[in-house]
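Morning F.,

Quick status update on the modeling queue. The single chain you submitted on Monday has been processed. Sequence for confirmation:
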Amino acid sequence: MEEILNQTLKYTPNAELIHQQLLSTQVLFENNRLKGINTKQINGLGLRVIKDGKIGFSSTTGQVSTKQDSTRQASTDLTNLTVIENAIISAKFGQEAKFEFPKISTKQASSLTQVKVFDEEVEQFSIEEAIALGKNLIDQLLAIDTELFCKEAEISKTTLKTKIGNTSGVESEYQKTIFTIYLTGLLIRNNSLLWLSEYETGCDLNKDIESMLSKITESLAWSKNELSCKTKKLPVVFTPRLMATILDTVELGVNGKLIQKGASPLTSRLGEKLFDERVTIYDDATIDFAPNSCPVDAEGVRTRKTPLIENGVLKNYLFDLQTAGFLNTVSTGNGHRDFDSLPSPLCSNIVVLPGEMDFYEMIKDMKEGLIIDSVLGGGQSNVLAGEFAFNVELGFKVENGEVVGRLKDTMASCNVFDIFNRLRAIGKESYTWGNVISPHFYFDEISVVGKK
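Structure tokens below.
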């Protein structure tokens, strides 16, 4: 990296290089059997420059090691030179740069490993172990019900090494692992399909399949009866899985690029109360072993915990260097990208603070209501504006404090900015779905459309 940056200095004093090495393995199952094993390996460089005030960029998947024989070394030098020239040429047509490449002190650089994102057990987890784990998962799934079978399952692991350096002195390097378990069970009964999916991912070797199977067992028990719902407004509990979808509105709303363009409905609304005062949401890339955690973002900026909604009040937006420059502010450490693309502001881990009500207490509290776990598509949803309209894929009807059956042929709609101001309670336990860590949410009512 130092050699390439030194070569780039012949053309411009402002350059940044990202080098990523990725190795991932997927063990896939389908219809109760092993389907295949996929392995992907990537070794890539991305070079961003500022030349005459404009941004240029180029990338390659060529060789990067300088310790090679003379023939391969010549090829490497040629590849490096081509990347540099392409980045310089592209700057003629690039966007105006609104930032300078960051600097980082020696003290900061030495503390980057404080965020735990690497687990040696994941790196050493073998294909044979993944196959055994998958078969065990399927065996336990089939033992829940004789009519249930595994439609799909996946055990995957990824090791990612990232180096970031620039001509301002930044030299950051970290290694990260990702381990994922995905399971979908299918039950065909009375000409009806029941899909039951669970998913866990993180940087450490998480093999808590008991929790996954427990949720599937409970959902299956609640699905013995199939019920339609009258068209009306009903109180509802959204599970953490559905909250990961609902919170897309917040993720998009605080995105610095949309703020910069004035396309977000949250533009110029900092300090405004948007939600019930019990709602606090923040972005945090410093949580140990959370899936989107990292010590620095893809521009070498230290990551941090950033309050988004605090006691219902909008507190911050999320920026990378360029969008922050447009708005005369600073990066929040949310510049994300792969080696072959320019940075863009994105959320890391979205965390919603829990409340005080147990999920099962929510159920007991409802005389008539719904639990919605997953939905099909977005219908006519306008996510950015907070408007959701969807078909319920997996949801349950509650009567007199008990779950009485699974919802069939039911649609629901809501506005995020409305329901978060008609909040009955927040669950006291949080669960992770993707990059969202959230409890259950209990709302006064949403609009439901059924066949009755």
